[in-house]
What does this fold into?
Amino acid sequence: MTHEARPILENIIEDFEPEKFVLFFRRKSPRFSEAKEGLQHYNDENFAQARKLGEIEFADSERLIVCTLSMQKALTERSGKKAQYDKAKKILKEQQIYSAGIFIFYDDDGNFRFSLVYPEYAGTKKVWSNFRRFTYFVSREFTNKTFLQRLASRDDDFTTLNIVKEAFAVAPVTDLFYKEFFVEYDKLVQAVRKINKIDEDKARDFVLLFAIRTIFLGFIQKRKWLGGNEKFIQDFFQAYQKSKADNKFYEDWLTILFFEALNHKFTPRKHLPKEINDALILAPHLNGELFKKKPEYDEKGWTIPDKEIESFFEFLFSHSFTIEESSLDDAELQINPEFLGIIFERLVNKADGAVYTPRTEVDLMCRLSLVKWLMKNLSLPITPVNLYELFFREGEAEEDQKDGSFSPKEARELLLLLERLAICDPAVGSGAFVVGMMQVLDEIEQKLREKAHLPASDIFERKKQIISQSLYGVEVKGWAVWICQLRLWLSLFVDAPEDMRLSPTPILPSLDFKIRQGDSLVQRIGNKTFPVSDHAVIKDSIKKKVTQLKNLKTEYFYNKASVDEWEIRQRELAVFEEILQTEIKEKSDYLNALKGSKPHDQSSFDIMDTVPRQTKIELDKDKIERLTRELDDLQEQKKNIRKDKPLIWNIEFAEIFVEKEGFDIIIGNPPYVRLEEIANPMDKVKDKKEYKGYLQEMVRLDFKDDFPAKKKINAKSDLYTYFYIRALRLLNPQGIHTFICSNSWLDVGYGVWLQEFLLNRCPVELIIDNHAKRGFEAADINTIISVIHAPQKKINPQHRVKFVAFKKPFEEAIFTENLLAIEDADKVISNDIFRVYPVTIKELLDAGTEYKNEEEKKLGAGKYEGDKWGGKYLRAPDFFIKVIKSNKQIRKLSSVCQIDGYVHDNNTGERFPKANFIKSVKNTRTIYLKNNSEGVIKYGVKNEGNSRVKAPILMARTYGRDHLVIFNPEGIIGKEFYKIIPKKDEETVTIAAFANSTFFILERELFGLTNLGGGALKFSGDDIGMFFLPHGLIIKKNKLLKDFFERAIKSIFEECGIDPKSNIPIEEQEPKPLPDRAELDNIVFDALNLTKEERKEVYRAVCRLVWNRISKAKSV
It folds into this structure.
C-alpha cells in the first residue's frame, strides 16, 4: 500500500496551487481523467477562475466532477458558505450527469474549503434540490490533522462513490476524535486521582469539568475573543512554561482565567506577563455558571499536573474547531458543538444508558411534535397540508419548495402559540432535543414573521427568547447538565454580535432554572414519595406568587435578577408549601364537616333520594377514611419538603403546572437500561430491588385509578417503560409525547402493561420504524419513534393508530407528500418508500385480549394479554394479517403445547451427573438430533428442577440468518433452547415439521425480539406460545420428511432459492425453494388456503425480513 497522496496534500497546504490537485486525484483513483475545462460562465462577484479539473467515472457508471473556484474575498470558515453551497448545487443541477462533486473554494492566501456535495434520493428518484454537503476547511495556520488522516491515509481507494462519501462522513471523524480523547481523558483521570489522593469517580467528574471548560474556551478563542488571538490557550500555556514553574499552571494560571477573568473579577497579577494581563482584563464576561466555582470540585484544593495538561492541549488543539452546529444537509468536519454531545455521551453512557440521538431523528421528532401539537391547539382552521409544508420540505426541485399558505392573521396566531410553548426533555442528556427544538422553532418563527409582515428580529435575541420561554430539561447526571448548558451557550454564542465582546454584563443567559439536575422518575424524602400532583383549585393569591416567581426566573435567565439563585429556590419551596397548606385546610374542613354531620333522620328523607340510609353512612365512613389518608399524605409532604430535597416536578416547574397544568410537549430519548442494571442513579438508594419498587410506586401514584394495588406492573420492565408513564403524566391535557426508544415493548411480555395503559388512556398517533437504517450504533439496540397524545379520561375506540415502516433511510423519505399520505391514511398504503398500517384502538384491544369462554367474550370481560405490535403491523408483509384474519380456527402454539424454559448456567457443569447434551443450535446442522449426532456431548446437568425435563422439540432462544427447530425424540438435554412438549403425542411430528416450515420462519421473524441491534433474534417462552398453527394441519412421517429432517439445513436464502445480493430486488425474484422444503411448505400452505402468489410472497417476505434485519445491524 502506498501513501503518496499525503505528501501531495501537505505540499498543497504549504504552497497552494489548484492544479496540484490533479496529481492528488490521480493517486486516489486510476479512473480520474483530467479536464482543465474553463467554467467562466459560473464566475460572478463572489467567484473567479471557475474550472473543472476533471472527473472520476466509477465502475458502476456513477460520475464525480472535481471543480476549483477562486474566492473574490478572503476565505474563512464562515465566510461565503451559502454562496459556495449554492454555486456547487447550481453546477450539479445544470450538468445532471454527475452523482456528486468535490468543490475546492480557495483564496489568495491558500486557504481552501474542500467540499463533497451530492443530491440525495427522494425514495427511488434523484431530486436536484435535496443536497448534502460535507466540508473540510484547510489552512496552513492549522494542523489539518483530520483532513490528512481521512483523505490521504491510502492511495487508489476512491473506487466507488460510497467510499468517497465515507472519506467525508461524520461518524469516522467522531470515532477518530473519541479514541484519542479517551486516551488523554484517562491519563488525566489517573494523574488527578494520584496527585490529589481522591477516588476515581471524583477524579473523573473533576477532569470532565476541566475538559468542558477548556473546550468551551477553544470555541471562544475561535472568534478571537481572548486577546484577539485564535491560539490564546496554547500561547497562554507557553507563557507559563517560560516562567519555569512546576505543576502550578492549573492553580496559578488557569483558575485565574476560569474564575476571575471570565467573570469580570480579574485584577492584574505580578507573575503574569503584561500581554497576558492585558488580554485577561479584556476577556469577555461570559456567564457565571460554567466559570463559577463549584464547591464540590473547585474548592477542594485539587490540581492537575502540567504534563497531562500539556498532552491534553496538544491533542485537543491539533483538531480544528468550528463554532457552528452542523445542519441536516451541511456538516463541517471539525469539532463543533454537536460533536461534543456525541463524544461526552459516549464517554459515560455505559453506566447510565445515555445514547446520543442522531440529528436526523431529532429533527424529525421535533417537527412532528410541533405539527401534531398545533393541529390540536389552533383556533383558526389551518389545514394539515399547510402545517406540513411549513415544517417539512418537499421532494421536489428547490425552486418548487413550499412553506405553506397563511394569511398574516394565521401567521400571527401560529407565532403566538409557538412563543408560548413549554417543551421538556426529562432525560435531556447533552441537549440534543432542546438544541434541536431551538433550531426548528427559530427557523419556523423566521418564516412566520415574514408571512405576518413583522420586522425580522435579531437572531441572538430570538434564540435567547426561545430558550427562556419554551425549553426545559432534567438530567440525573451533573456532567450532562454541564454539557447541555454548554451546547445551548454555544448555539447562542455563534450568533452573538461582535460588539458584545466587551459587554460589562454577562453575554450568555443563566440556565440554572432551565436545565435542572435530578431523578425524573423517583422523588423521595424519607419514606415519602412525591408524585406529580393535580392540585385542586389554585387561589388567586398563589397564582400571583407563581407569576412573580416566573418573572424572577426570567430576570435571572437574563442576568438581571435582584435576588440570587438560592433565594429563588426558597421562593419555589414557599409557593409549594402554600399550595399544600391550602389543600390541607380544604380537606380538613371537609373532613370535619363529615365527622360532625349526623346520620340522615327520617324527616329529612327526600322521596327523590333512593340511596338507603345505611349505605349513606357507609359512604361517609369511606370518605372519612380516604380523606384522612390524603391529609396524612399532604402533611407528611409539607413536613419533609425542606429535608434534603430532591427534584420535585411541582416545585421546580411550579409555573408550568399552575399556569398550564403541565408541559405542552415532552420529547426525548430515555436511557437504555435493562432490568438487571436498573439502580438509583443518584446513589441514594443502594438496594436495586428497593429502587425498582419505588419506580412501581411512582406509576401507581401518577395514575392511581389505572394502577391500583391489585394491578400488576411487570417487574421485568426496562427503565424506559417508566419514563413513558412519567412523561405522559407531565403533559397538560392538550399535550404531545414523542419518544425514540427500544422497540421491545411492542412485542415482549413486559410491554403488555404499557400497551394496555396506552389503549385505555392515551391515543397513540404514530409508531414509526425504519427498516433501512438502524438509529443507534452505540446502544446496540433497535428503536422506534412514538407520537402519543396526553392521557384522556375516555378515548375513542375508533381512533386509528398508525404503524409506519419506512423502507428508505429517513433522509430519503421525510418529505411533505409522504407525511401527508400517512396523515390521511385510513387503510393500508404500501409503496417503495413506506408502508402505513392504520389500526383502530378497538381492533388492537380485541387482538390482544384473551377470553376464557364465549360468555366472557360477549360481556367484554377478557384479560388483555398483549399483542405483537411490531411483528404484526411494522414487520409483517401485507398478506400475513389477511391470512391470520381469514383463518378463524387458527390456533396458538401455547394452546396445543407446553413450553418450558431453557436450562440455566447454574444448573450445568462438571459438578452434576452427565447426560447427553447440546449447548446451542450452532452445534448442529440437522433437524433430527440423535445421541450420536455431531454436537451432542456428555455434560453435567442438575437432576433437580426442570433442567432434565425431556422435550421432543427444542427451539433455540436466539437465531441469526439460519433456521432449524430440533426434532428430539431421544430426549437430549438442550441448554440454549426452549422445550416444546405437545399435549397430544400424535401431534409431535406435525408440530416439529411445521416448526421447520418457511411459514414458521416468517412468524419467527415477526414475533422475535429484534431490539438486540446486532442482527440477532431473541425469544421468550411467551413469544413462542404466540406462534400460529393452522387448524387441521397433519404432516405424516414419510421418506421425504425423514430425509429433510436428516440433511444439513442451509441458509434461509439457499433454502428459499432467493439471492438477496442480486441486482433483481427480492420482491421481484422467482423463489426456487429446495424440493423437500417446497414439499413441506405446500402442505402448510394448503392448510392456510394460500394462493399461488401468496406462497411466493412467503418466501420473498422471509428473505426480505432476514436480509433487512442483518443488513440494518450493519447500517450505522
About this structure: DSSP finds 40 helices and 32 strands in the chain. The longest strand covers residues 125-138. Residues 598-611 have pLDDT under 50 and may be disordered. Residues 175-321 form one domain.
